[in-house]
Design a protein that fits this description.
The protein is α+β, with helices and mostly antiparallel strands. The protein has a domain of 41 residues: Erythroid Transcription Factor GATA-1, subunit A (Erythroid Transcription Factor GATA-1, Chain A, 2-Layer Sandwich), CATH 3.30.50. It contains two helices and two strands. It has a two-stranded antiparallel sheet with strand order 1-2. The longest helix is centred in the middle third of the chain and has 12 residues. The radius of gyration is 23 Å and the shape is flat. The model has no long low-confidence stretch (mean pLDDT 79).
Length: 76
């Protein structure tokens, strides 16, 4: 699989680079340092877990096929 290194943007290949998706150990370590210094962060959840537990969260209900006996029936 070919990709660009997320740090230096050099072409990398999973068959060649042991540090894939990074091109080198140096870029892999720089990425780890970015996480450690909180340069990268994971965003906050879109929903509050307490609201979900109390049933206050919005939910999406998708209709399901009621005919489970013939799931590939073209009429459904």
């Amino acid at each position: 699989m070919k990709h660009k290194c997320p740090i230096c943007k050099v072409e990398t290949d999973s068959a060649v680079h042991a540090d894939f998706p990074f091109c080198s150990e140096r870029c892999r370590d720089r990425d780890l340092g970015n996480w450690a210094s909180e340069k990268y962060v994971v965003s906050e959840p879109v929903f509050d877990e307490e609201d979900l537990a109390e049933g206050k969260g919005d939910s999406i209900v998708l209709p399901l096929d009621d005919d489970l006996e013939n799931p590939n029936d073209p009429e459904h």
